[in-house]
Amino acid sequence: MRSLRPTLAAAALLLLANAAAQGPAAYTVPAGAPASIKRAIESSARPAEQRARDADRKPAETLMLAGIAEGQRVVELASFGQYWTNMLVEAVGSSGQVYMVDMPWTDRFGGEAGRAFDTAHANATYTQAHYNQMQLPQNVDAVIFVQFYHDLKRNSATESVDTADMNKKILAALKPGGLYLVVDHKAEAGSGWRDAMTLHRIDPAAIKSEVTAAGFELVQDSPLLANPADDVKQSMRAEGIRGRTDQAVLVFRKPTR
User: In terms of DSSP bridges, do strands 73-77 and 140-146 run parallel, antiparallel, or are they unpaired?
Assistant: First the structure.
């Protein structure tokens, strides 16, 4: 009987070739997205490697949850990489402003690019400040904090953040009714901060507890980036799950009175 191994191997190579040829999954901006957000996602100024991540990150839906609109003033915490910043400057337009605020210890991999982005965009400002001492602009419309909350309580005392105080600073910076969006990789329910420095994940309940304790209202716990295939027990950087983790998408609001 003729061996099937060469045939199977050839078929496997063909499947891999087809997958490579197809490239990343396509992303389509939802039909109901505001024109400013659609413009931001489809901007030709966005790098190709960032656009390739859109299908997994659903940027239009995320920006809509944060209520991002033309003319707004928005704070982006942990802006390094500028994935979100590239879209925010387009979404708020020339009449709006984006304030990027990064922790000083991120300078080694994000500082140069952040400063260059500031120079190249009239409606963007880059600042490095420890979140324990940062002075945020006041009466902003929104604050977004994506995939970095879990990195706030670190082994180094100089890098670790008092999250209770930080959230109070964010509350004070927002105008009444302003929105605070937090997105992060989910850890096991009930684990709190246990896996933050090892798996780079956090229990969403810990975020909710801390942010609402500062005076915010939780208005949305969205399943937008849910992934039941992620068992949340391995590092978010693990092969096969990186970029597709089960993520919490939480929207908080500053009370109007």
Answer: parallel
* Residue type for position 78: A
Per-residue model confidence as pLDDT tens digits over 191-244: 999 999 999 999 999 999 999 999 999 999 999 999 999 999 999 999 999 999
H or E stretch covering 167: helix 163-173
pTM of the model: 0.90
Cα separation, 108 vs 252, whole angstroms: 31
Nearest to 179 by CA among 39, 82, 75, 94: 75
Which candidate, 197, 112, 213, places its Cα nearest to that of 205?
Answer: 213
According to DSSP, the residues that pair with 186 across neighbouring strands are 202
- Cα 19–chain centre separation: 27
Identify each DSSP E strand in the chain by its residue range. Answer: 73-77, 97-102, 124-128, 140-146, 174-185, 217-222, 247-253
Residues 6+ apart with CB under 8 A from 176: 254, 255, 256, 257
Element (H, E) at 90: helix 83-92
Give the contacts of 110 (CB within 8 A, at least 6 positions apart).
79, 80, 81, 102
